[in-house]
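Researcher: Quick test of sequence recovery. Tokens follow.
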């Protein structure tokens, strides 16, 4: 028989793990707070107090168990993991799984690095680059070369991000590679307009999700996490811009 204190500890562990997974994979703060509150309520907690930031989560329940902190040490984008956490939360609310099963499945989800295969990421980068170049610049002849340059730029980003673990450096290097490839493709006669090729090819690197989440957090009243996400997005955009500018300056 589980003691009330052990049960409260399990509630805290489950809610904090769910919140950390969601923040690490690109969820907005309001969704994290709502999910963690629902988990605590559905698990039988009488009261719950939350303080959520993009760098850490502080939570206490029932006023009997001391508040616990869950640090957030990395941030990436994997909306599939967020969807899995939401699905588990709904299954727990509907009494389809127990709290212990919920916790165990979250620990398993946290331990696996389930992501789309590399070839599919390259294909997606190509399909983002080429069509958006046509949409923004109306330059159909450069569609295919933009697909190729965007795909190779994402390959550079993926390779560096896997080993260097510094996202801003990876984005800068990928932008440099895209700029070089765009200039060379024009020089060799494969492309017609360097600017159009660059505009389309950098689209897979553009920090759209952080910017969107930053605006949503600010509108929801999270005036710490919202601007922090905004700064992160601006640094990413600056890294991409500096990489392209450096190539255009020297070539």
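Model:
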């Amino acid at each position: 028989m589980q003691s009330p204190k052990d049960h409260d500890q399990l509630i805290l562990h489950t809610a904090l793990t769910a919140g950390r997974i969601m923040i690490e994979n690109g969820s907005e703060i309001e969704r994290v707070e709502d999910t963690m509150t629902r988990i605590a309520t559905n698990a039988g907690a009488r009261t719950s107090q939350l303080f959520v930031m993009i760098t850490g989560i502080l939570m206490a329940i029932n006023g009997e168990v001391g508040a616990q902190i869950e640090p957030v040490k990395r941030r990436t984008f994997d909306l599939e993991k967020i969807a899995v956490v939401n699905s588990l939360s709904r299954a727990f609310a509907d009494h389809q799984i127990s709290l212990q099963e919920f916790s165990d499945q979250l620990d398993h989800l946290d331990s696996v690095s389930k992501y789309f295969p590399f070839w599919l990421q390259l294909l997606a980068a190509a399909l983002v680059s080429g069509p958006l170049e046509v949409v923004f610049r109306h330059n159909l002849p450069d569609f295919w070369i933009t697909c190729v340059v965007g795909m190779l730029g994402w390959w550079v980003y993926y390779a560096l991000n896997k080993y260097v673990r510094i996202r801003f450096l990876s984005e800068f290097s990928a932008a440099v590679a895209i700029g070089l490839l765009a200039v060379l493709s024009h020089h060799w006669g494969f492309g017609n307009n360097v600017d159009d090729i660059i505009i389309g090819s950098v689209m897979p690197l553009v920090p759209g999700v952080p910017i969107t989440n930053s605006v949503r957090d600010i509108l929801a009243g999270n005036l710490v996490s919202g601007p922090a996400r905004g700064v992160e997005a601006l640094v990413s955009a600056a890294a991409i811009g500096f990489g392209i500018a450096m190539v255009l300056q020297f070539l």
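The longest strand covers residues 48-53.
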